[in-house]
Amino acid sequence: MTTIYDEQHDSAHTTSGRSDLTLSGYLRSDGRKGIRNNLLVVYLVECAHHVARAIASRDDPTVQLVGFPGCYPNDYADRVLTALCVHPNVGGCLLVSLGCESFDRQKLQEAVRTSGRWAESLVIQEEGGTKTTIERGRSLVDVGLSVIATAPTVALELSDLVVGTICGGSDSTSAITANPAVGKAFDTLVASGARCIFEETGELIGCEDHLRERAATPELGEELAGRVTKAARYYETLGHASIAPGNLAGGLTTIEEKSIGAYAKSGSSTIQGVIEPGELPRGPGLFLLDVVPDGEPRYGWPNINDTTEIVELIACGAHLILFTTGRGSVVGSAISPVIKVCANPDTYKKMPDDMDVDAGRILYGEATLDEVGAEIMDQIIATVSGRPTLSEALGHQEFQLGYKVFRSAEPGCLA
Amino acid sequence: MSTDARLIRLHPDDNCLVACRPMRAGDRLLIDDAIFELDVDLPVGHKVAARDLVAGETVRKCGAAIGRTSTAVPAGKHLHLHNLRSTYLAAHLVGGAQSDRVPKNTVDTTTNNTTDGSSVS
């Protein structure tokens, strides 16, 4: 890809002048446009993890390791992994199977090839074990890289982007600085025709009335509120309801107040629909991703850590992730770049090498929410243009996928 | 009208202000040109009333209702567990449970940690 990013976009430019920018992306055969050209090495069961890791270990950040550890089949994991393998930031996949796991390797390989992407697979039990599979895998990766290097580039607009947001390691500054600043960037993106996704209905408990007011239709409003009710019940069953003592010490008084702080990331646009992991937003605008499983809790926590939610956002097509943090998370992700927006100025001073945006300046009157929102937009444009985010440059490629159950195998996008 | 730079109004409709720098009991606060004296320490993230609030008044932060006052709260006073109550009632609990869903052990006395510490992102 021609890198059209240049240093003049690195400084604190406003986004007002970006209409004359020319962005480009990788055009996939299925018509989707990516901002990265990654090759995935995919383990289809934990037993194939080591071999896959050895194959993916090379001095090339575009060769990335993802996979699913479970042996027993799971529709959710199948849907998410398939969505990741045909993600616009992905040019091809090498699937690594042990040979006796339940994952339907052939169906996945077929889906990737049908999308026009390069796909090969290796079965360890048939290749002769660890050593020969690693050797064969490394040469297949060479082949795959030469194939995806020919991916054509194409003009890319903000309206081509899918952007997700998440918060992690929140503290009392998150709701004041980074979260509403991301909300400003979300408003700009939605106004530009992009698809934006916020998530974690468990953090929206108490926001049901606001969700109803912002829904595109009354029916969607009830659906959104119902998804929050599901989360409230799920978390309560797990003993994770309500608000923690640390929240109260940080100045939060009520569950509504805590949730409003997280909800601020979504900005103020109309909500167009609700989606589930692996499902793409069907049109432009703002969407809520419901990550809470249906039914009684079966596999423990809905989200073991932030990375599971990042993976789910990417499985919904997110080209990049806006991650707000107060205490200081360092994670990045495989497949899609993560832009870290630091809420707390003290954290920023301690961990500047990990934080792309210093939103804590708002606390000292050194920047307004609008200015930090514009700065986030500049970071998005630089990232789309090919500049690595700090977590990318540091080699972060976290990934985790576990078991979940959603009742709707083919969930309908309510729009 | 001017207001102390150590306080932030997150939305024009808000009737509370949030501390963006730590303040001490005895500090003087400027809120809409009037001066108030803080009677408690105010860590970052804590709230004060932006104007005189009557008992039962809806408190707004980020433009959204976050609960109701349980007593009258004069301008400049700390707004927290002692004078602000949730009005949230989860839909699946309607018909049986209480709306004040704050745990009994409301303040973490084992730490001075003023951050949230939540494990859910």
Secondary structure topology:
The complex is a heterodimer of chains A (415) and B (121).
Chain A: E1 23-27, E2 33-34, E3 38-43, H1 49-56, E4 63-67, H2 75-85, E5 90-97, H3 105-114, E6 118-123, H4 124-127, H5 130-148, E7 153-156, E8 162-167, H6 178-191, E9 195-199, H7 208-214, H8 218-237, H9 245-249, H10 255-263, E10 271-275, E11 285-289, H11 306-315, E12 320-325, E13 338-342, H12 345-350, E14 357-358, H13 369-384, H14 390-393
Parallel strand pairs in A: 3-4, 3-5, 5-6, 8-9, 8-12, 9-11, 10-11, 12-13, 13-14
Antiparallel strand pairs in A: 1-2, 1-7
Chain B: E1 7-8, E2 16-19, E3 28-31, E4 34-37, E5 47-49, E6 58-61, E7 64-69, E8 78-79, E9 84-85
Antiparallel strand pairs in B: 1-2, 2-5, 3-4, 5-8, 6-7, 7-9
- What's the alpha carbon Rg of chain B, rounded to whole Å? 15 Å
Cα distance, first to last residue of chain A? 35 Å
Number of helices of chain A: 14
Biggest sheet features of chain B: 4 strands, antiparallel
Q: Structural class of the secondary elements of chain A?
A: alpha/beta
Give the integer mean of the pLDDT values of chain A: 91
- Average pLDDT confidence of chain B is 81
Biggest sheet strand order of chain A reads: 10-11-9-8-12-13-14
Given the structure, what is the number of helices of chain B?
Answer: 0
- Low-confidence stretches of chain A are 1-17, 409-415
**Helix and strand string of chain A, N-terminal first?**
EEEHEHEHEHHEEHEHHHHEEHEEHEHH
Gyration radius of chain A, in Å: 21 Å
SSE run of chain B: EEEEEEEEE
Approximately how much helix is present in the residues of chain B? under 10%
The total strand number of chain A stands at 14
Shape of chain A: globular
Strand residue content of chain B: 25-35%
Q: Going across the major beta sheet of chain B, what is the strand order?
A: 1-2-5-8
Give the proportion of residues in helices of chain A. 25-40%
